[in-house]
């Protein structure tokens, strides 16, 4: 019975030592593992990059054995799935319609403001007549001053290059006048242009002198045809406006306010032979 207890004592006495030895062994193993981990990391850091390619694997063409992409980044192509949100159109129709509308609006405004329009020319008639008589040659000399009203409907300036006028009496030219570099018409503006035509009636119609110098008549009216041409130019092209009108002229004395009985701006020329009053 005493030996049995001693064994028991010895076995009991040995158990704590085994437990302590086990605990110390486990601690030594963990320390060894941590040391082994640190040494492994250092070894891996010093170990060069090696590609292990199998039968179904593909070698990285851009790494060039370094394990990282060091250059040619801008030449790489990324594959994006078709269902990616970045590939979905975002208000494409709205942007297209808005762009077309803005283009049409801009073209319409440009055509409206830059489209050339003809200058409006209105003959305001003869305002001043100066009469002189050449008793030696029996001629009637007159200076007729007329006025033109010009209107520029464009949104840019227009140049009035010339104003020319011819005066006819009984289908014969009795006077002509031409002026160059008249003026500049500002955008959406109106101006008046005065021009004077020197008229001579003598050898072609000698009876006119007798009629104009007759003292028994107070008003000595004759009818003349005036053909006026206005040449204007803008940034694009040159235009010409032609006016024709019959005028009553008092050839007996100087006048400054001539009453216009009728005025015609029709083209072609009216085929009417004006009578001598």
From TrEMBL:
Residues 1-38 are annotated as: Disordered. The keyword Isomerase does not apply. GO terms for cellular component: endomembrane system. It is found in: Endomembrane system. Keywords: Membrane, Transmembrane, Transmembrane helix. Residues 24-93 form the Transmembrane protein 106 N-terminal domain. Residues 116-256 form the Transmembrane protein 106 C-terminal domain. It comes from the Eukaryota. Pfam families: TMEM106, TMEM106_N. The chain crosses the membrane at residues 94-115. Belongs to the TMEM106 family. This is Transmembrane protein 106C.
């Amino acid at each position: 019975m005493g030996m049995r207890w001693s064994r028991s004592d010895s076995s009991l006495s040995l158990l704590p030592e085994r437990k302590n030895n086990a605990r110390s062994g486990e601690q030594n193993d963990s320390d060894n593992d941590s040391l082994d981990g640190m040494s492994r990391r250092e070894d891996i850091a010093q170990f060069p990059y090696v590609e292990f390619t199998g039968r179904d694997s593909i070698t990285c063409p851009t790494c060039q054995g370094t394990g990282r992409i060091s250059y040619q980044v801008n030449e790489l192509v990324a594959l994006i799935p078709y269902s990616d949100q970045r590939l979905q159109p975002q208000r494409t129709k709205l942007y297209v319609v808005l762009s077309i509308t803005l283009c049409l609006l801009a073209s319409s405004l440009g055509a409206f403001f830059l489209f050339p329009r003809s200058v409006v020319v209105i003959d305001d008639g003869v305002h001043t007549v100066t009469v002189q008589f050449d008793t030696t040659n029996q001629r009637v000399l007159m200076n007729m001053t007329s006025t033109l009203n010009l209107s520029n409907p464009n949104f840019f300036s227009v140049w009035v290059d010339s104003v020319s006028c011819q005066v006819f009496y009984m289908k014969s030219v009795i006077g002509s006048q031409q002026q160059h570099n008249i003026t500049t018409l500002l955008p959406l503006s109106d101006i008046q242009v005065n021009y004077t035509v020197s008229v001579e009636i003598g050898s072609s119609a000698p009876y006119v002198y007798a009629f104009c110098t007759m003292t028994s008549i107070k008003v000595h009216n004759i009818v003349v045809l005036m053909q006026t041409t206005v040449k204007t130019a803008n940034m694009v092209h040159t235009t010409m406006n032609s006016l024709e009108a019959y005028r009553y002229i008092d050839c007996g004395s100087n006048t400054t306010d001539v009453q216009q009985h009728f005025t015609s701006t029709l083209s072609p020329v009216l085929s009417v032979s004006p009578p001598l009053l």
